[in-house]
Amino acid sequence: MKNNTLHKVSTLTAVALVVANMIGTGVFTSLGFQLKDINDPMAVLLLWVLGGLLALSGAFSYAEIGTVFKKSGGEYHYLSKLYSPFIGYLAGWVSLTVGFAAPVALSAIAVMAYFPYAELNPVWSSIALVALITALHTFDLRTSARFQNGSTLLKVLLIVVLIAIGLWVPGFEGNTYLEPPKVSSLISSSFAIALIYVSYAYSGWNAAVYITEELKNPKKSLTYALIGGTLFVTVIYTLLQFVFLKHVPVPELVGQVDIGTIAATKIMGRDMGDLFGLGISLLLISGISAMIWVGPRVTAAMAQDIRFWRGIKNKPNEIPKKALWLQFAITSLLLLTGTFEQILIYCGFLITLSSMLTVWGVFQLRRKKKETYNNSDTFKSPLFPLFQIIYIFFALGILFFTFMERPMEAMLGTGNLVLGALTWYIGKKISFKS
């Protein structure tokens, strides 16, 4: 095994990691669920712009916190420092149980849904795919980085080609996708619920903070990856949804998972649609790879600090193999027991809660750590506190409407936190490193 201290992750790879994490299942699957309750294409397009604004607001906050606390682990580390070890532990628990395992499960399901040339068992083939990619990430950082950079490049190229063709080819006759949005759509509870799907699609904008210690230049890499990556993906996402709505009648999109294949078939015919379906199936592997890479870093950080998780602890500078396979086991369990839509809402609820607390932490940080901002290695969120207020306002709205409209998923999320608290108290002799 090579010593991984000899290889650090470049800014380019950090950006690729964020882009790969973001461009995954959500952008190709969630439109059909949004249109189930909002029969208003322009309102749906505005959802994607709003989702980009929220992700960017979060990215500014995470870049600031990440350049102050230059340690891997994301919300687990940040919330432990900003609030208390217990709050940080619950954030780490969310990351461990659903934050990465659930999106990996959803992406694996989508890979099988898009695969056009064979009828495969969606559950067991998804588990086999996740196992294969997990094994790949047990080698070294150089292997992970090369695979991530290459797969992300192919993903972006395919999407850009689909967008370019979709913008050039005329849409179907009689399409109403350019009609102004209805006010009733924008103020409805359905709009708020649909924002959960969009927020899930944008999740991953914070991916680089989970590997901070593996970055060559944390300030530069985090700033470029979080902010630059989010802006790039926002443009890609909005244009892609525009193309979908331009070429496919809304009734044919409602409730569908394989939106990309449906749109590609409308634009280029069945044969090319199947080819693009295969391409989308393969490009989703990049997102799976990115989440499999970064997720276990949170668990590994917890194992370094907390006695309860010492069984999966790895030596310094080693690949967290035990954490990788633990995440695989949780992903497999979700694949065997959950449905696509339920996992998506349940996961989005918990991720929104965790990220909202982190964004609120910027207020804590500025009050407690004023001296840190004299350091040139720290990034300051612009127009403070505008972006933080925007993020927190909409996050609270998402949480409220989830409880009102999807109580089962909200209760599952709450139950997950209760279970996390129980593991904390069961291991009450847990000791944190001094």
Word description of this protein:
This protein is mainly α. The chain has one domain: Amino acid/polyamine transporter I (Up-down Bundle). α17 packs antiparallel against α18. The radius of gyration is 21 Å and the shape is globular.
**Strand and helix order:** HHHHHHHHHHHHHHHHHHH
Quickly count the helices: 19
Instruction: Identify the quaternary structure here.
Output: single chain
Proportion in β-strands: under 5%
For CATH, the homologous superfamily is named as Amino acid/polyamine transporter I
> If classified by CATH, what would the architecture be?
Up-down Bundle
**CATH class call:** Mainly Alpha
Overall pLDDT score: 82
Termini separation: 30 Å
- State the low-pLDDT regions, or none: 1-6
Instruction: Quickly count the domains.
Output: 1
Shape from CA axes? Answer: globular
Helix content: over 70%
Number of strands: 0
Q: According to CATH, what is the topology? A: Amino acid/polyamine transporter I
The largest β sheet comes out as: none
What would you report as the Rg, rounded to the nearest angstrom? 21 Å
